[in-house]
Design goal:
heterodimer; A: 183 residues; mainly alpha; Rna Polymerase Sigma Factor, Chain: A; Arc Repressor Mutant, subunit A; 2 domains; 67% helix; B: 80 residues; elongated; RNA_pol_sigma70_r2 (chain A); RNA_pol_sigma_r2 (chain A); DNA binding (chain A); sigma factor activity (chain A); RNA_pol_sigma_r3/r4-like (chain A)
Chain lengths: 183, 80
């Protein structure tokens, strides 16, 4: 029996940031990530009748997005041979460089690090979702997108002191929420 | 320094927007105020978590553009 309903009217507000964050960590290009998220929403809209209500909308959209990301890499890889760069060490100048490349990279990410980052990202997104819309918006602009105080004030037509009050409330709520779920 | 101002400076410090003088006064306040010390500690933890997570999101303009495109598709998809 299907327990969950599908309602695409709020998809962008509810899931665009979550899907974008999921994508950017996998494709590392804002424009491509944005396109993939947009394609996901459109594909979701077209295949709405396939939604059985067994998972949440977000999980269902993520499953579509995963396929979009795989398709994206398939497309890139089909051109791989054309742009392949071969490295050789025959030139005297580069002699010995191979040794550096074989040394373990202390900054290399392990699977555990990636998983922890993903879980942390999920926890933060969930807490952000619980904030009132205006607070979440100001917090994202200031903290995640790193906009200047003046830019945000001009864009949202608020005073600087108003912005700091909103930031304070958002930070307190975020810290409380993450304390329950992460700290 | 009253507590609400200490919290405000603490918030500004998370975004590197406080002055050296403000930070000195804040630290003096933190010596004797346990509530603000707790707030400051949690605030610092939050900043670190956000940095570690490398979380990203769409800016408003991109989201609006996405919304417009989607609404067009949604209108086409509505049953007659």
């Amino acid at each position: 029996m299907s327990s969950r309903q599908i309602n695409p009217n709020n998809w962008i507000d509810l899931y665009s940031d979550y899907l974008f964050n999921y994508t950017i960590s996998r494709v590392s290009d804002r424009v491509i990530a944005q396109d993939l998220v947009q394609d996901t929403f459109l594909a979701g809209l077209k295949s709405m009748k396939n939604f059985k209500g067994e998972a949440t909308e977000r999980t269902w959209l993520i499953s579509i997005l995963k396929r979009k990301i795989i398709d994206h890499y398939r497309k890139i890889n089909s051109n791989k041979g054309k742009a392949e760069v071969r490295i050789n060490y025959k030139e005297s100048e580069s002699e010995g460089d191979w040794l550096e490349e074989r040394v373990a990279d202390p900054f290399d990410k392990t699977a555990e690090d990636t998983l922890q980052n993903q879980e942390l990202g999920d926890a933060i997104q969930n807490c952000l979702g619980k904030l009132p819309a205006k607070q979440a918006n100001v917090f994202k602009m200031k903290t995640i997108l790193g906009h200047e105080t003046e830019t945000i004030c001009n864009e949202l037509n608020i005073t600087a002191s108003n912005l700091w009050v909103i930031i304070h409330r958002a930070r307190t709520a975020m810290a409380d929420c993450l304390k329950e779920n992460w700290f | 320094m009253p507590c609400n101002e200490a919290n405000h400076v603490c918030d500004k410090t998370q975004y590197k927007e406080s002055t050296l003088w403000e930070k000195i006064i804040l630290n003096l306040h933190l010596i004797y105020c346990s509530a603000c010390r707790k707030y400051s500690s949690n605030n610092g933890k939050l900043t670190k978590l956000l940095k570690d997570s490398k979380i990203d999101c769409l800016d408003d303009k991109s989201k609006e553009a996405m919304k417009k495109e989607f609404e067009k598709a949604l209108a086409k998809n509505q049953p007659e």
